Amino acid sequence: MALNGMLPTSDYAEDQPLFHFILTAHVMHRTLPIGAFISSAIPLASTFVLRRATVYPITALLLRSNSTGALVSLGIGGAMTLGRMWGREDIEWKDRSWRLLRNTGQTQLDDFSAAGLAVGAVLGAVGRGPLPLWRGVVGGAGLGTLAGTLAFVVWKSTLGKKEQ
């Protein structure tokens, strides 16, 4: 599992290093596909349901909307973590981080989503059209996390069940 290989984990939760970073990054990463879904629905509905004329091609519209949605999602994820964990003891942060790293299903989902993020960022940079590079990369990364999450759901509902 790539996540376990990249992030240090300990044998016991109370010894977990980087616990603040791990938990915050996890929640922020998990908010990206939700933001991508919402950020994709808006331009798609505007274009296809409301039949509004578009200035950009649909790919550029999606990248533009998702670049904003990704930044908003990251902010919301950070605020959610801060709000939920405010005033909590370090052992609670360590325990939650340790459990995330030890949960096979969660690390598989994170791996799929992270792979989608990387591929999406590259594809967004290449296919951004008239958009600035940062919009292509960030928008593609957001869309990639959604694609990775959906790929995980399909994989888990078909091939992943054979592993159990």
Count of alpha/pi helices: 6
The succession of helices and strands, N to C, reads HHHHHH
SS class: mainly alpha
Bulk shape: elongated
Helix content: over 70%
What would your notes on this structure say?
InterPro entries: DUF1757 (IPR013869). With 164 residues, the protein is mainly alpha-helical. The protein has one domain (16-157). The chain contains 6 helices and no strands. The longest helix is centred in the N-terminal third of the chain and has 31 residues, at 19-49. The model has no long low-confidence stretch (mean pLDDT 89).
Q: What secondary-structure arrangement, pairings included, does this model have?
A:
Elements: H1 2-6, H2 19-49, H3 58-85, H4 90-102, H5 104-126, H6 133-157
Pfam families: DUF1757 (PF08560)
Keywords: Membrane, Transmembrane, Transmembrane helix
Brief overview:
With 164 residues, the protein is mainly α.
Features of the shown structure:
single chain, transmembrane helix, transmembrane, membrane, mainly alpha, 164 residues, DUF1757, elongated
